[in-house]
Design goal:
This protein has 528 residues and is of the alpha/beta class. It is built from 17 helices and 18 strands. The longest helix is centred in the middle third of the chain and has 30 residues, at 290-319. The protein starts with a strand and ends with a strand.
Length: 528
């Protein structure tokens, strides 16, 4: 693994020109943005109450028609964080419009992703005449063709890649077909456009769309950036009781807190569909009675703890299969299908290699892939033994027959580029440059996320004290006025001892305890 220390020569100019801290200036300098891009990131802001939404007029008119004609509208959702938030926004929007409506989110294991014929038929049988898809639908040609054959109208709302020949709709809203400010929105972001156009600014809808934007890892630029800022502002004002109660602490809200404390809990219900019903989550997110919200929060936290236990068990088994191959393929018959993506993401980060994690399901291997080095939208294009495949550049789902596992591995070996090497990009900071104030100043650049990631920081320091936490599960190194913490130690070298020098690579944070603030680094890597 090679550590690439990014060039930050221009940071003094940026510090003076943009009136930011030295640490913030170094981070901006490392990204090699043009001045125009920097000004856009730092200063461009979209007023969500004043957006140009005329492109929504035909859809708004159709929904008003549904209201006038007493039609029943069915929302077809998805089981991940984005899909759940999108379903909730759309459902609440239609309710606010006075439209009779329902929603259905499929079971990840029994039904899988997208709209299904059985859902369409049941909706038709119950008198629904209009379907709205959220965060899915562009790949559901057969089910939506059935809807048309039954005389139903379709509003297709999605943000995933599509083939024009597969689309079935009467109305279609997709970021790719919108102007630049909207062109990278997630499924819940698109649902928010319905909300803004139909019922105006609703605080809880803004927060849900912001949570989904962070959780679905879409670029935090243009409207997405303004949306997340607005969601964080509202949460810091104490808005949205259900989300406030889901948090582990009462501290300041930011995009990191949403990513680590909220998104996994909402996701956990869809991931553990064998023991939970994802269709209960929108009801919880719209619940007004505090006692009911409290009860559901307890259940959601318990479910998330089960998810953590399963994830840790899978990770431990998967670790025994790690090899020197440039693309990791990990499979055990005990692996839980809903947790594959979590483990794949963890190992992709840990080993800086594309990772596929597979589980068995009725003769098929179904799995998740995560990658930072190859484009998953095209890598498997010529693999002719797949049953299903799809996703984004860095994350995809895959399925194939168990007997084809060796064929898939052979395809990977044949097509994996030879020149890809594991490289860690980081910004080098001298230990004497760090202060609590400097780390806190990074908030002036927030939010960080896809397209504007918080870079890894590289610090050379001497270990003054080392201790293991949680019976050796975690390790903490105390350096020069800063603690370095590695959770779930994995392949990090635990052999570095007191008085030894090391290079610590990770992300800076502030810990506050008993009104005292201390500097931390959450470690990704450590080297001698």
């Amino acid at each position: 693994m090679k550590v690439n220390k990014l060039n930050v020569d221009d940071y003094k100019r940026l510090k003076d020109e943009y009136k930011i801290s030295s640490l913030s200036a170094k981070i901006l300098a490392s990204k090699n943005f043009s001045d125009e891009e920097l000004r856009t990131i730092l200063f461009e802001n979209y007023d969500l109450q004043q957006l140009e939404l005329s492109f929504m007029n035909p859809i708004v008119d159709r929904l008003k028609q549904a209201k006038q004609q007493n039609e029943k509208v069915m929302i077809c959702g998805d089981y991940d964080n984005d899909g759940i938030c999108a379903t909730t926004i759309m459902y609440d929007t239609l309710l606010r419009m006075g439209i009779e409506c329902g929603y259905y989110i499929p079971n990840r294991f029994d039904e899988g992703y997208g709209v299904h014929k059985t859902t369409v038929q049941k909706a038709f049988d119950k008198g629904y005449t209009l379907l709205i898809t959220v965060d899915n639908g562009v790949g559901s040609k057969e089910a939506l063709m059935l809807a048309k054959q039954l005389g139903m109208d379709i509003i297709l709302s999605d943000h995933h890649n599509y083939d024009e020949a597969d689309l079935v709709y009467d109305y279609f809203i997709h970021p790719n077909r919108l102007d630049t400010p909207y062109s990278a929105m997630c499924g819940a972001g698109v649902a928010l456009l319905f909300s803004l156009a139909c019922v105006g600014y609703v605080e809880n809808h803004i927060i849900l769309a912001g949570i989904a934007t962070i959780g679905d890892i879409v670029p935090l630029l243009k409207i997405n950036r303004s949306l997340v800022k607005e969601a964080v502002r509202l949460l810091n004002e104490g808005k949205y009781e259900a989300i406030q109660l889901l948090a582990n602490d009462k501290k300041v809200w930011n995009e990191s807190k949403i990513s680590f404390q909220i998104v996994p809990k909402i996701n956990s219900v869809g991931r553990l569909a064998d023991i939970a019903n994802v269709n209960q989550v929108p009801k919880f997110l719209l619940e007004q009675k505090t006692e009911i919200v409290n009860d559901f929060v307890v259940k959601l936290n318990e479910l998330n703890e089960k998810r953590k236990i399963i994830s840790e068990s899978m990770s431990n088994k998967a670790m025994t299969q790690v090899s020197e191959e440039p693309f990791l393929v990990l499979y055990d018959e005990s692996f839980h299908e809903g947790i594959n993506g979590i483990v794949a993401s963890k190992f992709n980060n840990e080993f800086q290699k594309p990772t596929m994690v597979l589980s068995a399901n009725e003769g098929l291997l179904k799995g998740s892939i995560r990658s930072k080095s190859i484009d998953l939208t095209i890598f498997f294009n010529e693999c002719d033994c797949l049953v299903s495949y799809g996703g984004h550049k860095g994350a995809a789902g895959i399925s194939f027959h168990i007997e084809d596992l060796d064929r898939v591995k052979a395809y990977i070996q044949l097509n994996m580029p030879l020149d890809i090497q594991s490289t860690i990009d980081c910004v080098e900071i001298m230990i004497e440059e760090l202060t609590v104030k400097e780390i806190e100043s990074l908030s002036e650049l927030a939010p960080f996320g896809c397209g504007f990631e918080m870079p890894l920081i590289c610090i050379a320091d001497k270990v003054q004290k080392k201790m293991f936490l949680s019976y050796g599960k975690h390790v903490k190194y105390t350096g020069s006025d800063i603690d370095y913490l590695k959770f779930n130690c994995g392949n990090v070298d635990k052999g570095i001892n007191t008085n030894e020098k090391a290079v610590f690579i990770g992300r800076l944070s502030i810990n506050e305890y008993n009104n005292k603030k201390t500097m931390n680094m959450i470690l990704d890597y450590i080297q001698r």
